[in-house]
Amino acid sequence: MKFWPLPHARLWGALVLGIALTGCANMQSHDKLASEMQTAGQTNGIPAALARLEASATTADEKAALLYNMERGELLRMDRRYEDSTGAFMLADTKVKEWEETAQTNPSKLMGTVGAALISERLKAYEGQDYEKVWLTTRLALNRLAVGDFENARVDIKRTHEREAIIAEFRAKETLAAEEEAKSKGAASGSKEINGYPVETLNDPEVLALKNGYSNALSHYLAGFLYEVLGESGLAAPGYRKAIELKPETGVLEEGLRGLDSRTSFTWKRRQRMTDVLFLVEAGDAPARKPKAFTLPVPTGRGMVTASLSYPVIEPSNDPLLSQLSVAGYDFKLEKVVDVNVMARRALKDEMPGMVFRGITRAIAKGVLQNELQKRGGLIGGLIGAAASVATEQADDRMWRMLPGRVYVARGYLPPGEHRISINGRLIDQPIQIDGQYALVPLRIYRNSVLTGQVASIGQLAAQAAAPAPQKPAVVETAKPEKPVRARRPARTPRPAAAPAAQ
Predict the structure, then answer these.
(1) Between the CA of residue 181 and those of 16, 210, 355, 365, 391, what are the distances in Å?
(2) Are 128 and 70 spatial neighbours (Cβ–Cβ below 8 Å)?
(3) Sequence-ordered list of residues with C-beta below 8 angstroms from that of 80, at least 6 positions apart, any chain
């Protein structure tokens, strides 16, 4: 029996392993699981969707996985189980913290040039989309607010800003490393274009308008709001400014900054008799990643190799646009501050250069092996190599699918009390209780229903603190009859007639 040189043997073994693992990945496609969760949720409610997800994880590793806990945390949040949701999100956050530590200390370990570059992107450990990492700390902050844990919400907000900086630094290094790796394997420097790929989906005006694929206006506006309600207006202003920078010409964001000084003034707080209410209205589903196969000619030192590559395409969710929220006779304009569909495309656009270079590296390695197999095994060897190459080339379809597709914000003043809300003329069954100086009202439009989250109330209205004030006139009035004690001076002044009269 003749043995191949070790590098080829290793690569062949990797390909065989890749075929087996890819078969498992097909059975456990996250896109398929997400569709089943959404169907279960639409038919039988959120607990059914949660049950379908939990049934998919049977081992300890699967139950500790990043994507599993992000999905589980979101479903628990939608079911108003905030403490359980926070627990799931914290497990997910532990994985992201590990990624952050590695990205800062040993970024080459995350570049994906060993396993994924030789076999498949899908076999990489799921690290989360960049915008998902930021959404995670934002979700944690919202959960804390719902249960009144304002200090930990403040910590989560601070970590959001730190996480964005780590992501920005790592992605710059990753793209450069992928390009250098591809060139070292003999790829032509100009082989970045993929014939047939719908690049227009990554280059439309909405995508290009985003500064990056991970920062979102909601996270920074929420930072401004939280700092404001905690009495830290100096920190609130930068949050509002950043939100405006990320989503310019959005009235509710601009008013957050413009009215900050007046809202936090001592005089305003003393006179205010209505609650400053922030509505967060989330609608639709997060987009899906669909794999799409492409053929790419790759020039190498051994000639031209025709490679079969698979890259993801973002399939956006379809949900009606929202425009107006009405409550207690007041109308508020709903303004879209986040579109996860657009963020997913921008994240993919930023990721594509590195993904393409890794694909080229993979194609070259597989092409060399295929040629070697054909030389040594003839037609059969060539066919085996081609089959292995195609079978192991699958785009990664993993994404946090239970996130909303779009987030709208409205803000204004409401009198304390119980109120009914309507959105775009649709009356919501469950009323909300408004109280306090500030209130945050989370609403989630999920398929044909509206899920009302726990209203967070912060601070005391001046009217409550000054509640005894209206009673002062009554106190004065009851005191007046007693003051005529002065009228009893005749009793203190001995008058002759007074004593007999008293007898």
Answers:
(1) 24, 29, 12, 12, 23
(2) yes
(3) 451, 453, 454
Phi-psi region of 80 (alpha: psi -120 to 50; beta: other; left: phi over 0): left
Q: Which residue has the tokens 């990056």?
A: 212
Nearest Cα neighbor of 401 from 120, 72, 104, 159 is: 72
Amino acid at 68: Y
Domain limits, the chain: 6-458
- Taking CA atoms, 374 is separated from 268, 308, 369, 383, 392, in Å, by 81, 17, 9, 8, 18
Type and span of the H or E element at 430: none
Q: Name which of 125, 14, 105 is nearest 61 in CA terms.
A: 125
Report pLDDT digits (tens) over 247-257.
999 999 999 99
CATH code of the domain occupying 6-458: 1.25.40.10
- In the numeric block, which tokens belong to residue 143? 């959960």
CA distances from residue 20 to 15, 50, 212 in whole angstroms, order as listed: 9, 29, 36
The residue type found at 315 is E
Q: What is the pLDDT of residue 153?
A: 96
Question: Taking CA 119 as the corner, what is the angle to CA 167 and CA 34, rounded to the nearest 5 degrees?
Answer: 65
pLDDT at residue 356 in the model: 78
Per-residue model confidence (pLDDT) at position 239 = 96
Residue 399's nearest CA partner among 483, 288, 475, 488 is 288
In this structure, of 27-36, 343-352, 355-364, the range with the lowest mean pLDDT score is 355-364
